[in-house]
Description:
It comes from Bhargavaea cecembensis DSE10. Keywords: Ligase. This protein is an alpha/beta fold and 504 residues long. 31% of the residues lie in helices and 26% in strands. The protein is built from 17 helices and 28 strands. A hairpin with a 2-residue loop joins strand 14 (292-293) and strand 15. Helix 9 crosses helix 10 (242-249). Mean pLDDT is 91; it is low at 497-504.
Amino acid sequence: MYTDHGWIMKRADITPDGTALIDVHTGQRWTYRELAGRTAAYMEQFRSAGLRKGERVAVLSHNRIDLFAVLFACAGRGLIYVPMNWRLSESELRYIVSDSGPSLLLHDHEHAGRAAGLGIPAALLDSVPATSVNLRTEQAAGRLDDPWMMIYTGGTTGRPKGVVLTFESVNWNAINTIISWNLSARDCTLNYMPLFHTGGLNALSLPILMAGGTVVIGRKFDPEEAIRALNDYRTTISLFVPTMHQAMLDTDLFWESDFPTVDVFLSGGAPCPQTVYDAYRKKGVRFREGYGMTEAGPNNFIIDPDTAMRKRGAVGKSMQFNEVRILDAKGRPCRAGEVGELHLRGRHLFSHYWNNEEATQEALKEGWFSTGDLASRDEDGDYFIVGRKKEMIISGGENIYPQEVEQCLIGHDGVREIAVIGIADRKWGERVVAFIVAQPGNIPKTEELLKHCAQTLGSYKVPKDFFFVQELPITDIGKIDKKQLAIMAEELKKEEMQHPGQSG
């Protein structure tokens, strides 16, 4: 009962008075005993509602610590937890409801109206009593391969897919992360990542709770609030996307803070600008970039922060309990320096795509997950992600990997954010174009960027056009929307609206 489905109750037995969760927005603090009590209360609500093993419980809410009690209650009752992205449109939410078929929708006050319009039984998260009930509430019998949560992907290539994560998937990601990243009960993380996303749930939150540490939950990211929280709650390890790192660097408070308890800052989701590396190096704070996928943990690699500083953009070596390989187009293993598709294997992998057997069979073969990402490794065995397979640019018969170009350009001190795509070209088939958000007061000239690229890139990889924009379009899960960038590129070329410093 404890080890697979109800491990949070076991953790409450071991460290009942340890601080499990803190809510930056409300100031709430829960010990492990209190978290277990709230979990048991939700379990009782689900039992009273007649929910049976395998049924789905959807959630529509901003970040709040109650969501963890709901998640663990679903585990205890054998229900499948389905967090929904509150940024989605009504039609998109309706699709997820139709696809997943939840028996109950739990929501916060802000989303009560939207929840009521989705046509399924709904209840406020606050409707469950805060008082503790019997911590030995009967748990549903279960297996390691039973589904625990279903997280919907962003759907940039079509309808979003429900990624089914079993108890084995989630627990082994947590175990692997604890061991490979040396997490313990002394660790504390600040988490502003959305809790409808695997980065918010599984990257650090669940591993740290399994280890007995503390998870501090933020709602809407504010750089100064985040910096104060990092210091006030004595955090040790935290994950932010590059725009969050940059926003913190832009404040005076960042430069006034020493972050004395921080072991390491993590970054993921997009290439990180050189200014972030330089800032953390100057502060004496360790920093590293990572790679993750909803279908695989998300955690797969470990890199020493000193190596990360020397090899900007590297994600390191595979973690303790997973395997990595790179295959070429013919399915042969790639040698060091060669680019191929990244494949992952381990007990942390997802089980299947919900209601999508065809996609499942395409992605999972003989225990290996085909990520669709292109990667390489160097002679030291450290891995680098160079882009999505579907985003590879073929220009004049040469293969060009967008992330390789992005990693080059993000190293220029005038580049704050970067995205590289290929667009149709009569002469070359495709041409490389770059969208740049410049550092405030430091807009680089085209000549500077061309010279910078020439230092590390072959001439055919250098962008033919540089478009300077105020911001990059993002998808509903916070990733750069490259489909929208392609539309923008065509419009900008047609209308000849390039800003000064762009090349045609």
